[in-house]
Write a structure and sequence with these properties.
Shape: globular
Number of domains: 2
Radius of gyration: 23 Å
Distance between the termini: 43 Å
Oligomer: single chain
């Protein structure tokens, strides 16, 4: 291609962007609408979005639903931005349909989380929904943590910027973007400050409620705290399957929360306080050490959110803690933490997990393994020969609505029971050391 043709293509790209912006923002419903619909229809027909998986095979949630002992329990942890209880409804319904769980509890249970370790502070809301198959009795208890109430008051400092005194001075699109930035941008900053302990306590309380009983053991509402893992919880810990799904900052919270629990378990006597009914028994720790905990990270941000942070208390010692032949094997937190990291290359805020990251930057007691999923959740529009237009906002927020993402979480990849959609649309490469 010569210089003139390159300039011509660049100019054509600018012209196309200007045409689309003009037609969309001016409310033109004629030619503009027809052109956009035609491009979207073409994109629908020729859906060549990438789905590549590198790592170890995984079976997804479905493998544990039919077992005789224990229940499957899933905890969703949201990322940046203000959220209200029920934000996972679309994802939960898509997952339930994929797993053929056709009965749902009429009313969710909502627990206002508290703990004596962070006194005089509400820690957000834990919402639980029971999903059942009415034929074979398979069951999933879906937990949803809403922690954004912890940061809401601090973000109110920026509310003046969205007021009439300032808002009318901005272009319409810029105003929308500024509101989005004011809602989402402060959360990672606030998380590094005084609210970090409260957010991690909210995660720990959510995990405690998930691990300590079944649907009928959960309070229907009100403010409550979970006092720890006791001997009466051992059957649940030993036989239940625990699954985590997280989005953006929620993945950092989940990992930090797990590392915080690992520290507490290693120092259980130090934090035990019978007067406040906080206790973790040796038998429950031993039961937890045999668990495999999968974490499905949507719009994974672990590499970026590691910047400027200290290394975990125990790192680079995976063999010492995770090998059965090691003399420190009894000090591990769990048998395996299986991380499946989803990232869209057009998501400006997500990253794959590079080789060596888990050994240096994750607590060795988690015994982590990593599988990367490189997936286009945002459609790439092909117009006038220009195949480079994808909505970065959709690429960041669209994971939990993507059928392939839901299918991977439900049934996994790299084994005979993977769903036909995944067999047809996703490429799997098993990695070895």
């Amino acid at each position: 291609m010569n210089i003139n043709s390159k300039n011509l293509k660049v100019k054509a790209g600018h012209l196309l962007s200007s045409m689309l912006a003009t037609m969309l923002l001016s409310g033109c419903t004629g030619i503009g609408k027809g052109m956009v619909e035609a491009m979207l229809e073409k994109s629908e027909v020729e859906d060549t979005r990438v789905c590549q998986v590198w790592g170890q095979p995984f079976t997804g949630i479905s493998s544990g639903l039919g077992k005789r002992q224990g229940k499957t329990k899933l905890l969703f942890v949201h990322g940046v931005g203000d959220h209200l209880p029920g934000y996972t409804t679309e994802f939960m319904e898509k997952l339930a349909k994929q797993l053929n769980l056709n009965v749902r509890s009429e009313t969710p249970k909502n627990i206002s989380l508290t703990t004596p370790l962070v006194p005089d502070r509400e820690l957000g809301n834990l919402r639980a929904t029971q999903l059942i198959n009415d034929t074979d009795g398979r069951e999933l208890i879906f937990y949803e943590l809403t922690w954004s109430g912890i940061t809401r008051d601090e973000k109110a400092l920026l509310s003046f910027d969205d007021s009439g005194d300032y808002e009318f001075r901005r272009a319409r699109i810029n105003s929308l973007l500024k509101k989005f930035t004011n809602d989402t941008g402060p959360d990672p900053i606030i998380y590094l400050g005084e609210s970090r302990e409260a957010i991690l306590a909210a995660f720990a309380q959510s995990f405690c409620w998930m691990a300590s009983g079944d649907w009928h053991d959960l309070p229907a509402g009100g403010s409550h705290f979970c006092g720890g893992l006791h001997d009466e919880n051992i059957d649940h810990i030993a036989h239940d399957d625990y699954v985590f799904v997280s989005h953006s900052l929620g993945s950092r919270i989940t990992i930090d929360g797990m590392q915080r629990i690992a520290y507490f378990l290693a120092n259980a006597e130090k934090f035990a306080d019978p007067s406040r009914k906080i206790e973790v028994t040796k038998a429950s720790i031993e039961a937890l050490q045999n668990k495999r905990l999968p974490i499905y990270m949507l719009s994974n941000q672990l590499p970026m959110l590691q910047l400027g942070r200290k290394l975990p208390e125990v790192s680079g010692q995976g063999e010492s803690y995770c090998s059965p032949a090691s003399d420190r094997y009894h000090e591990r937190m769990v048998n395996e933490t299986s991380i499946v990291a989803f990232s869209d290359p057009n998501d400006l805020l997500s990253y794959g997990i590079p080789p060596g990251f888990k050994d240096k930057y994750l607590d060795s007691r988690l015994c982590a393994t990593v599988t990367n999923v490189n997936i286009n959740v945002a459609k790439i529009i092909d117009a006038f020969g220009l195949s480079d237009l994808a909505n970065p906002l959709e690429a960041h927020l669209g994971y939990d609505r993507d059928d392939r993402v839901v299918a991977l979480i439900a049934n996994g990849i790299g084994h005979p029971n993977a769903l036909p959609l995944i067999e047809e649309r996703c490429e799997f490469v098993k990695t070895v050391k």
